[in-house]
Amino acid sequence: MKKSFYDLNFSDLETVINQNNLNGSAAAVLFNWHYKKKENAQCNDNIAKSSLAFFEENFDFSLPEINTVYESKKDRSVKFLFKLKDNHKIETVLIPFHNKYSICLSSQVGCAMNCSFCFTGEQGLKRNLTTSEIVGQFLQAWRWLATNRPGEERILNIVFMGQGEPLHNFDAVKKACEIFLSQHGTSIGVQKITISTAGYIPGLKRWSQEIPGVNLALSLHSPFEEKRNELIPINKKYPLDEVLTYIDKIPLNKKQFITYEYILIKDFNDSSVDAKKLGTILADKRAYINLIPFNSFPGSRYEPPELDSIEQFKAVLDTFRIPTLIRSAKGDDVLAACGQLNSKNQSNYSE
Ligand code: SAH
Q: What pTM was computed for the model?
């Protein structure tokens, strides 16, 4: 089987070109063509026919196939169900902000973390995504916007908050980030990419060393180890205390903050005792808090909090002077909100 062109970062592409004695300028031409063009077409730019023939013969230029598109009536979020070559399916979400979008990418088919509040966890882990499958989600969504919402094809932020644990699939996620960041690639600013993790310490180590500047979000969800064990089983192996200590040691650049995500679950972690403890452990850190009211899904065992308790929780955090945002549930009418992605439960799933 041919290797995917979209698995190559820029320096991989340069290596291929050197090893095959092709004209060096082809690297920039090809990258520009494939990552900056809104339509999916064969390169016919300033490139030697022989180089083009070499790539056509040796590389696969196909992208994940869009199986179904779900457009939210409520807020213009868009959820894509993609079909991969081996028939596995994954989901990607475009989240609108004033005619621009953030994209929420998946990093694995399913997930091994098995968090008790997350729909994806129920699928188990099927396999890691390749770099081309990650980058392909972006390219397909971007091109869909160009065709279906012309003038709105601006994706400003990339968040690895879809299906999967991105730090569990570090090599492919790292290479995708390199393509997103490359000035010849999609040329996205490093501060516009965020990787979200349940707290997988070996992956955190690699993140801090290998892709510094890419933002980190930690799914915290409870400041108490016992409760966090119940929500995020990997906490038993890598307890919150160790994760936070590890993160504290990582040098951040001037404008960099760590985002701490906190799902508010009714009568479980939404009391003022929880809020005070959370405030205490984060008070002297470079922290933003994202409060995410629990999003329910078919068969979920938890409930969303009352509106009052969300506001009271935030009020407690305000006394600690930690910048806190309450995240609205965009796209929940098409099961596109956080934790609602589960490509196995799509009616047209086939394995
Ligand atoms: N594995 C990574 C990224 C995927 S989850 C991680 O754990 O961070 C992305 C975010 O959605 C996480 O903060 C996760 O905790 C949150 N999430 C999962 N299920 C949710 C649900 N039912 N309601 C609200 N947020 C949820």
A: 0.94
